[in-house]
UniProtKB/TrEMBL annotation:
<keyword id="KW-0645">Protease</keyword>
<dbReference type="GO" id="GO:0006508">
    <property type="term" value="P:proteolysis"/>
</dbReference>
<protein>
    <submittedName>
        <fullName>DNA repair protein RadC</fullName>
    </submittedName>
</protein>
<dbReference type="InterPro" id="IPR020891">
    <property type="entry name" value="UPF0758_CS"/>
</dbReference>
<dbReference type="InterPro" id="IPR001405">
    <property type="entry name" value="UPF0758"/>
</dbReference>
<keyword id="KW-0378">Hydrolase</keyword>
<feature type="domain" description="MPN">
    <location>
        <begin position="27"/>
        <end position="151"/>
    </location>
</feature>
<dbReference type="GO" id="GO:0046872">
    <property type="term" value="F:metal ion binding"/>
</dbReference>
<dbReference type="InterPro" id="IPR025657">
    <property type="entry name" value="RadC_JAB"/>
</dbReference>
<keyword id="KW-0862">Zinc</keyword>
<dbReference type="GO" id="GO:0008237">
    <property type="term" value="F:metallopeptidase activity"/>
</dbReference>
<dbReference type="InterPro" id="IPR037518">
    <property type="entry name" value="MPN"/>
</dbReference>
<dbReference type="Pfam" id="PF04002">
    <property type="entry name" value="RadC"/>
</dbReference>
<keyword id="KW-0479">Metal-binding</keyword>
<keyword id="KW-0482">Metalloprotease</keyword>
């Protein structure tokens, strides 16, 4: 005899509530625009102390939907979890993503790990039709743009 088994399943609800009109959102025309917005949202006290990873979410016209803190690590690294990044981007109906992290040393040159994670996220984004537009390495005195450098 087969018994009917009841499964307990959680309901998943997805919503995004922007609180600005599209015309009021800043538009990204280049890496300098992205850097300026990111610096406005970065805790100055942590910039040269802890490595953090953030993303800028953009619509099809490169208007900023939001800045999201993805992770905070130690002095030598942090995690850029693709599942977290893309779950947030999909929930916000983003069309493009700009990746960003800081190096507490103040050096902006990318490491081999930085290059590898950028490539990995770019490939994953292609499957989801979410374009990785750039990856910035941030410091108080400037930034490195993967896009500007052709990486």
């Amino acid at each position: 005899m087969v018994q009917n088994t009841l499964f307990k399943v959680s309901e998943v609800e997805i919503f995004y509530r922007p609180n600005y009109k599209v015309a009021d959102r800043p538009k990204i025309s280049g890496s300098k625009d992205a850097y300026n917005i990111l610096m406005d949202h970065w805790d100055d006290g942590k910039l040269e102390f802890l490595e953090e990873f953030k993303i800028l979410l953009l619509n099809r016209r490169n208007r900023v939907l939001g800045v999201v803190n993805i992770s905070s690590g130690g002095i030598s690294g942090t995690v850029a979890d693709p599942k977290v990044i893309f779950a947030i981007a999909l929930k916000a109906c983003a069309s493009g993503i700009i990746l960003a992290h800081n190096h507490p040393s103040g050096e902006t040159d990318p490491s081999q790990e930085d290059i590898a994670v950028t490539k990995k996220l770019r490939e994953a984004g292609k499957l989801l039709d979410l374009q990785i537009l750039d990856h910035l390495i941030i410091s108080k005195h400037g930034y490195y743009s993967f896009c500007d450098e052709g990486i």
